[in-house]
Amino acid sequence: MMQDLAEILFSAEEIAARVKELGNQINKDYEGKELIVVGVLKGSLMFMADLIREIKVPLRYDLIAVSSYGASTSSSGIVRIIKDIDVSIQNEHVLIIEDIVDTGLTLRYLITTLSSRQPASLKSCVLLDKPSRRKTEIAPDYSGFVIPDKFVVGYGLDYAQRYRQLPMIAALKPEVYSTEKNSGKEEN
Ligand code: IMP
Fold first, then answer.
1. Any idea where the domains of the chain sit in the sequence?
2. Catalytic residue of the set 102, 141, 149, 158
3. Lowest-pLDDT choice from 15-24, 75-84, 149-158, 166-175
4. What CATH topology corresponds to 12-148?
């Protein structure tokens, strides 16, 4: 697995330190409020698990799964919900937790869909932000790290469902994914 990595972008320690900072910011911003945290499967699993343990305001969490169609290292923008959240978010303060915002199309879809359910507020928190690839004008409210246009894996992020268990975030060697087929269903 390690031989497929081109470079390590963030170590486990750097991620933990940044997650703590994000937690502190969220604690300030939501003081006196209650949160519903919506984690986007599968990539946000580790980020969400670590982040919510830094959050001191009362919260409930739920999970949503979406899929997009297109090449497996780039998103087509056609998004649909595979597994919806179970809780009602009407009049609740909702925070979406995503692993990475790339073209922005997935996050845009989630924001549009969840805001139609009339939450009291809706914000997004992403671990990684790749602004250079944006296809829609969207900026996450909280972002862990801004990264260049590299395909990254680890800490929940995958290529073809693999590498999620790596404790660090690393860029994958282009030759590992350059043989990909340009069609088919991709689960996030
Ligand atoms: P977007 O709709 O293009 O913003 O893509 C969001 C989804 O694409 C993320 O939730 C990831 O599942 C996936 N994705 C985008 N870039 C990467 C990457 O560098 N590594 C792993 N997954 C990625």
1. 12-148
2. 102
3. 75-84
4. Rossmann fold (3.40.50)
